[in-house]
Amino acid sequence: MSKVTVVGAGNVGATCANVLAFNEVADEVVMLDVKEGVSEGKAMDMMQTAQLLGFDTNIVGCTNDYEKTANSDVVVITSGIPRKPGMTREELIGVNAGIVKSVAQNILKYSPNAIIVVISNPMDTMTYLSLKALGLPKNRIIGMGGALDSSRFKYFLSQALGCNANEVEGMVIGGHGDTTMIPLTRFATYKGMPVSNFLSEEKLQEVAAATMVGGATLTKLLGTSAWYAPGAAGAFVVESIIHNQGKMVPCSVYLEGEYGESDICCGVPVILGKNGIEKIVELPLNEEEKAKFAASAAAVRKTNAALHEVGAL
Ligand SMILES: NC(=O)c1ccc[n+]([C@@H]2O[C@H](COP(=O)([O-])OP(=O)(O)OC[C@H]3O[C@@H](n4cnc5c(N)ncnc54)[C@H](O)[C@@H]3O)[C@@H](O)[C@H]2O)c1
Ligand SMILES: O=C(O)C[C@H](O)C(=O)O
Questions:
Q1: DSSP strand E in 113-170: where?
Q2: Could you give the ipTM of this predicted complex?
Q3: Domain coordinates of the chain in residue numbers?
Q4: Which among 42, 68, 101, 176 is annotated as catalytic?
Q5: Ligand 2 atom closest to Cα of 83?
Q6: For residue 140, what are the CA distances in angstroms to 58, 63, 166, 302?
Q7: What is the pLDDT of residues 92-115, one digit of tens each?
Q8: What spacing in Å lies between the alpha carbon of 67 and ligand 2's midpoint?
Q9: What pLDDT, in 10s, does the model give residues 128-160?
C-alpha cells in the first residue's frame, strides 16, 4: 500500500492532496494541520467527490496527530505562513523555520523511511534546514520550486508563441526567489525547435522576467500566494517519485560540488524515482548562465545564514 502525507492543509496542502487523490497517485493520502478540524473537514469534503470524480484513494484528515502519518512513503511539507503582496519569500523565514523544523522532526519519528518534499518558503532554505535538522541522506530531501517555476515558464512561453503549453519544453534552475530564478531560455523548445526560432531576444527576456516574478504577480492579484499550480507541482513531484517515473525535474537539492556549489540546496535538474533523487544532471551552462547560477546560489546562501540568527540551526 502506498501512502503520502501532506502537512499543512491550507491552500497549497489541500490542493496537493486533492490532485494526489484525484490522480490516484497513492492508496492513501493523509492531511495534517494544527488547526482543529480543518484537515478532517477538507478530507471529508474531498471524499465526497470520489463518487463524482471516480477515484478510489482514501483521504484521511487529522489535527496534529502524527500517528496517523505513520509509514508514509512520501511526506510533503507545506506548513507555514504564505507571503502577502509586497513581501519577499525570504521574509517568511522567522516564522516558517521553527514550523518546518518541528514538523520535519515529528514526521521522521513516525515515517523513518519517508522521502520528504519541502514546499514551505523560503523553499531552498527550508529544504536545507530540513536536511541539516534530520541528517538524512540527500536523495531523500527534495525542495519543490523548479517544477512550479518551469510550469510557469512554459505557460509564459506558450502565451508568447500562441501555442499549446503542452508542446513547449523548458526548465528554470537556481533559487526559488523573485531575483534568483534562472529561466533557461537557451534550452527552451517548441516541438523540439529552439524557441529563439520564433521569438526575439527581447521577447524571450520579457518571458524570463514574467516567470521570475510569477509568484509575486499572483500574490498581488490574490492577496496571498498562489495554490493551484503550487499544489499540482507538489503532486507532480510526488507522482514522479512514487511511480518511479525517472523524469527530469528541476528541484532544490543538496549540492556537493555540482554546478560549482557545495553545502547548499538550490534548484538543478534531477532524475526523480523511487529513491527520491536518483541523479543530479549537470547541464552544459555557458559563461553567462554559470555567472547567474553563482549569483543565485550566493543569495540563497545569505538566506541560509539567517537560519542561525533565528535559532533554527
Ligand atoms: N515552494 C513553492 O513553490 C511554494 C508555492 C506556493 C506556496 N509556498 C509556500 O507554502 C506555504 C503554505 O502556503 P499556503 O498558501 O498553503 O498557506 P496557508 O496559510 O493556506 O496554509 C498553511 C497551513 O499550514 C498550517 N500550519 C501552520 N503551522 C503548522 C504546523 N506546525 N503543523 C501543521 N500545520 C501547520 C496552517 O494552519 C495552515 O493551514 C507558504 O510558506 C508558502 O509561501 C511555496
Ligand atoms: O510566491 C510565493 O510566495 C509562493 C510560491 O513560492 C509561488 O511561487 O507561488
A1: 115-118, 141-143, 168-169
A2: 0.99
A3: 1-142, 144-308
A4: 176
A5: 3
A6: 25, 25, 29, 24
A7: 999 999 999 999 999 999 999 999
A8: 30
A9: 999 999 999 999 999 999 999 999 999 999 999
How many whole angstroms from its chain centre is CA 13? 11
Please determine, looking at this structure, whether the domain spanning 144-308 carries the CATH number 3.90.110.10: yes
Helix (H, G, I), strand (E, B) or coil at 60: strand
150 lines ligand 2 (CB under 6 A): no
Interval between CA 149 and ligand 2 midpoint (Å): 9
Respond yes or no: is residue 176 known to be catalytic. Answer: yes
Structure letter (DSSP) for residue 122? S
d(CA 239, CA 127): 19
Question: How many alpha carbons fall within 13 Å on the CB side of residue 297?
Answer: 23
Q: Class assignment of domain 1-142?
A: alpha beta
Task: Give the Å distance between the CA of 236 and the centre of ligand 1.
Answer: 18
Residue 69 near residue 48 (C-beta atoms within 8 A): no
Q: Quick one: pLDDT band at residue 164, thresholds 50, 70, 90?
A: very high
Pocket test for ligand 2, best of 121, 126, 152, 181 (most atoms within 8 A of CB): 121
